[in-house]
Amino acid sequence: ATERTLSIIKPDATNRNLTGKINAKFEDAGLRIVAQKRIKLSMEQAGKFYEVHKERPFYGELCEFMASAPVVVQVLEGDNAIAKNREVMGATNPANAEPGTIRKEFALSVGENSVHGSDAPETAAQEIAFFFSGLELVG
Ligand code: CMP
């Protein structure tokens, strides 16, 4: 079925000017970028977005990193978009990512891992609504 998922190109990737190369990976996989903006998150916004991880030992570091430089937030649409995006991203830890995936090619570490993608339909809907209004979604 056609789905939408929330994707974030993280500071390590925007810093290295990799937005276009990462978007090409999404488009080559058949994912359509139906909304996209480049923003700088505050610590508060990063903390709210990653609230589910607030008890994790890496939460502070994760929020500081996400607020350290601009990110590109985007909505990807396509058949099975959530799973397809996770396939294109590769494993969270680039050491475990398959060849050809974004994280294998570009990620620096488990923290500086270039991209985020929603993990399920419910979180996709929540995460899209966190960054975009309905008017900004142009299928
Ligand atoms: P993401 O998909 O954005 O969701 C939560 C993020 O936490 C994850 O990607 C990683 O970048 C980050 N993360 C997970 N484990 C660690 C860790 N051990 N140290 C630092 N960051 C981590």
Automatic annotation (TrEMBL):
It is an enzyme of class 2 (transferase). The keyword Phosphoprotein applies. Its EC number is 2.7.4.6. The active site is at residue 116. ATP binds at residues 10, 58, 86, 92, 103, 113. Keywords: ATP-binding, Cytoplasm, Kinase, Magnesium, Metal-binding, Nucleotide metabolism, Nucleotide-binding, Phosphoprotein, Transferase. Its cofactor is Mg(2+). Residues 2-139 form the Nucleoside diphosphate kinase-like domain. GO terms for molecular function: nucleoside diphosphate kinase activity. It catalyses: a ribonucleoside 5'-diphosphate + ATP = a ribonucleoside 5'-triphosphate + ADP; a 2'-deoxyribonucleoside 5'-diphosphate + ATP = a 2'-deoxyribonucleoside 5'-triphosphate + ADP. Pfam families: NDK. It is found in: Cytoplasm. Major role in the synthesis of nucleoside triphosphates other than ATP. The ATP gamma phosphate is transferred to the NDP beta phosphate via a ping-pong mechanism, using a phosphorylated active-site intermediate. Homotetramer. Belongs to the NDK family. This is Nucleoside diphosphate kinase. It comes from Albidovulum litorale.
